[in-house]
Design a protein that fits this description.
little secondary structure; 5-stranded antiparallel β-sheet; 4-stranded antiparallel β-sheet; 558 residues; 1% helix
């Protein structure tokens, strides 16, 4: 048996895969012929199974199916809502691959439009947060100073965005948590918060910070002059009150410009983006079905923008699931990486498309034994790394896998949500697992990434050993927490480790360091009592404390 200590072996490996749904174009007819697409095809006011034309349709005769695929309700009580329900799969204009500007969660993953990672890089989706417009520009559900991307930038009213409120006298909510200055517990020790408190309805600047009543953020949530609710920024945009006392009421207040009560509905005929969502007239999903917007549907194979939305063939969401140029299948995100086609219309084909970086067909390179250590050169390329996938074979199975399967730090605890860095493996027992760096005694690959770690074995059925971090135990005190363990000296850095205690006494022949009983070191002449060269600690029972070449601190009684 090659290794000194046995540990159970746990491999954490994530296989990533993508999927894309289909889309179908629907034209108005005099009869409701498609009974499960969520649309009123014949414009008679009744949709799908609510329309008498669908009475004999097999879909509508199924017991209580999910008929409304956009209401956020589990209509048929089967545990699946809207597009996550298989009943909605054929509602192809709503459910399928994510369409990035229609207001629906098309793929049923709980994320709509630009909030869905499938839309990353789509020209309809912004990428940078603007930190002072009270809008969630990057669609991560965090606005202005509440968004970590804004830390250090100028926020609303010229304040500086902070990860934690430390500026306590600028009348600003610097960390975007809804609490400003002395309202924020982060300011509890600030000298600005030791003085008089603001009275919110007397017209005076009681705390002398330059702001009175509802203009002072200390009054947020309090009753202001005349009984108004103090809000800064103003959020009640339909109560006919100037809640932040800035001279602007409701929709006249810039704070309310993005409020649904203040957004003008889209006019589908005037060439103006009336609701300010970045889409004008028929390009706005609000105009779906409008008589002015029943234009020619997109032909997905002809290189022409047939429907006038500035998107051609597979770049047009309307083509997802349809045949594109050369017979390829159009996709929202390129997952078919071997068909020679630009499936998502981003002008990048197969392995040239970053979407394919984790596809097995696009990962090149092979791993050898010497590539598996923490300081080895990675032969797999920028998007992959070497992985020890199986120790049950001889030799071990090594392969290049997608780099998204690596992460974390050496010696960190590892679980199914916390990966390990290249050059290490997740191993342990039933109580805990850690990212142990790989090493090998036979090839002298015994270097470990930190000075407090040593190559001490422990990977069963493998040609590799593992680097462990020192327990910091004392050979004289024998202070290991587990009564079955003893403290042993390992390596040349005076690192000590707790391992299962051996039984051999003075000068008994030994092979492994933990063959010896506690307080002994395995040497070429057998187990010898450990002693400290500075004369402290337990005295030698026989012989004198003699220097050994592999330690500056410890010697042996000989």
């Amino acid at each position: 048996m090659k290794t000194l200590f046995k540990f159970s072996f746990l491999v954490i490996f994530f296989a990533l895969s993508g999927c894309a749904g289909g889309g179908t174009s629907t034209n108005n007819t005099n009869t409701e012929t498609i009974c499960n697409d969520g649309m009123d095809n014949d414009s008679d006011g009744d949709t799908d199974c609510d329309d008498s034309d669908c009475a004999d349709d097999s879909y509508c005769q199924t017991s209580n199916p999910e008929l409304n695929c956009t209401d956020g309700i589990d209509n048929d009580s089967d545990g699946a809502i809207d597009c996550a329900d298989s009943d909605c799969v054929s509602s192809s204009t709503i459910c399928g691959a994510e369409i990035c500007n229609d207001g629906f969660d098309n793929d049923g993953d709980g994320l709509k439009d630009c909030a869905d990672s499938d839309c990353t890089g789509n020209p309809l989706c912004p990428t940078a947060e603007i930190c002072n417009n009270n809008i969630d520009d990057d669609l991560n559900n965090l606005k202005d100073c509440a968004d970590p991307a804004c830390v250090g930038s100028t926020g609303p009213g010229g304040i500086t965005c902070e990860s934690q409120e430390i500026t306590c006298n600028d009348n600003g909510d610097n960390d975007g948590d809804g609490l400003a200055d002395c309202q924020d517990p982060n300011c509890s020790t600030s000298t600005y918060c030791d003085g008089p408190q603001e009275i919110c309805d007397d017209g005076n600047d009681n705390d002398s910070d330059g702001y009175a009543d509802c203009r002072d953020l200390d009054c947020n949530g309090q009753v202001g002059p005349g009984g108004i609710a103090c809000q800064n920024p103003e959020t009640s945009c339909g109560d006919s009150q100037d809640n932040d006392q800035d001279g602007y009421t409701d929709c006249d207040d810039p704070d309310c410009f993005a409020d649904e009560n203040c957004i003008e509905p889209e006019d589908c005929t005037d060439g103006i983006d009336n609701d300010g969502d970045g889409a004008t007239d028929c390009d706005d999903s609000d105009c779906n079905g409008h008589t002015n917007c029943t234009t020619t549907s997109e032909n997905c194979t002809n290189g022409v923008d047939d429907d006038g939305d500035l998107l051609i063939d597979c770049a047009d969401p309307n083509c997802v699931g349809s045949l594109g140029p050369g017979g390829i299948t159009c996709q929202t995100t390129e997952t078919n990486c071997v068909d020679g086609g630009d499936n998502d219309g981003d002008n990048l084909t197969d392995c040239d498309d970053p979407n394919c970086s984790s596809n097995s067909a696009c990962i090149t390179g092979t791993c050898d034994f010497e590539d598996m250590f923490y300081d080895s050169t990675n032969p797999c390329g920028s998007s992959a790394g070497c992985f020890l996938s199986d120790t049950s074979t001889d030799p071990d199975t090594l392969e290049c896998i997608d780099s998204s399967n690596f992460g974390g730090s050496f010696f960190d605890n590892c679980t199914f949500t916390n990966l390990c860095p290249m050059g290490s493996i997740c191993a342990g027992d039933t109580t805990a697992s850690y990212c142990y760096p790989l090493c090998d005694f036979e090839t002298s690959q015994t270097t470990c990434p930190t000075t407090d770690s040593e190559c001490v074995g422990g990977l069963t059925n493998s040609d590799f050993e593992l680097c462990h971090q020192s327990d910091g135990c004392d050979l004289n005190l024998q202070d290991c927490t587990d009564s079955a363990d003893a403290c042993y000296l390992v390596g040349e850095n005076d690192n000590t480790f707790c391992f299962t205690e051996g039984t051999l006494g003075a000068e008994a022949a030994c092979t492994y360091l933990n063959d010896c009983a506690n307080g002994y070191i395995c040497t070429g002449v057998g187990c010898l009592q450990a002693c400290r060269m500075d004369g402290t600690g337990i005295a030698c029972t026989s012989g004198s404390c003699t220097d050994v070449s592999f330690s500056e601190t410890w010697g042996v009684c000989y």
